[in-house]
Design brief:
Elements: H1 2-23, H2 28-45, E1 60-63, H3 69-78, H4 119-132, E2 139-144, H5 151-162, E3 168-174, H6 183-187, H7 192-198, E4 202-207, H8 211-218, E5 228-233, H9 257-266, H10 271-277
Parallel strand pairs: 1-2, 2-3, 3-5, 4-5
Length: 278
């Protein structure tokens, strides 16, 4: 099962990189760092959203780091919320796949995101509403580590612990880089675990590319009243050697044909495979 998910995640990586290549714009570094997490979440953990949504059994997902939309779209295509052919329309005029998730074009998206630091507040509000409705639905939100430099994140963190929102799980894509340099150079986040514990959260730290660790950490919890944060240590540009741990590939960047070919080969594509993506 783990090997299957690894293979699926790699396929989703290829689809996401190809969509960015065709868009000639995107954020490949942060897209590639979060794909293992999204793959496990959508394929093994969540009751996934559907086209009609608002089913009372559906879990909720908020992609707070909206610039990683190509990762969300590629995962959505893997569960038939989108056609894979649509991924080539990323950021094109009149496409429903804009550079950030757009709720007006994608009915399974809960909220348009992109203004960093706001997704957690929305996720917290949804989790509180579900508590009031006494449902078993879970709320998941993926945030970027740079987002934690926004004050609104910590306001939401206080609210969630005060209201004992144990139906809320936040995953930090902790790749430790942002647009210009490392988080530590811009505005350090450490000691990160201590900060979240001080805000009353149940803290788990994992390898964000280890499928088993991701799966185990995301399973619903019944033994705590605290909201949960999973600090997932990841690699920016994961899987593409010339992108890994390089802030330049945060985005927004375009890929030349040679760079696209090199990236796809790094992900295991043959020359014939690559031609199918053009």
């Amino acid at each position: 099962m783990t090997e299957n998910i690894n293979q699926l995640a790699n396929q989703i990586r290829k689809d996401a990189v190809a969509s960015i290549y065709h868009a000639q714009s995107g954020h490949p570094g942060g897209v590639l760092s979060c794909i293992d997490i999204l793959t496990v979440l959508f394929h093994q953990i969540m009751t996934p959203p559907n086209i009609r949504k608002q089913n009372y059994s559906d879990d909720y997902f908020i992609l707070s780091k909206g610039h990683a939309a190509p990762a969300l779209y590629a995962v959505a295509a893997s569960i038939d919320l989108l056609k894979r052919s649509e991924l080539k329309t990323l950021r094109k005029l009149n496409s429903k796949l804009q550079g950030h998730p757009d709720v007006t074009h994608l009915p399974w998206v809960e909220i348009s995101t992109g203004s960093l630091g706001q997704g957690l507040s929305v996720a917290t509000g949804i989790a509180k509403a579900l508590k009031l409705q006494n449902t078993n639905q879970q709320v998941y939100s993926l945030i970027g580590d740079g987002e934690m430099q926004e004050g609104q994140v910590w306001e939401a963190a206080m609210f969630a612990s005060h209201h004992q929102l144990n139906n809320l799980t936040v995953i930090v894509d902790y790749n430790k880089l942002q647009s210009d340099a490392s988080n530590a150079d811009i505005c350090t986040l450490e000691p990160l675990q201590d900060k979240w514990r001080a805000f009353g959260w149940h803290v788990i730290e994992i390898d964000g590319h280890n499928i088993d660790e991701i799966n185990h950490s995301l399973k619903p919890q019944n033994n705590t009243t605290a909201p949960r944060i999973i600090i997932a240590n990841t690699t920016k540009g994961k899987g593409v050697n010339f992108m890994e741990n390089i802030p330049f590939w945060h985005g927004s960047v375009s890929l030349s044909e040679d760079q696209f070919s090199a990236a796809m080969k790094a992900l295991g594509c043959s020359d014939i495979d690559i031609k199918e993506y053009y």
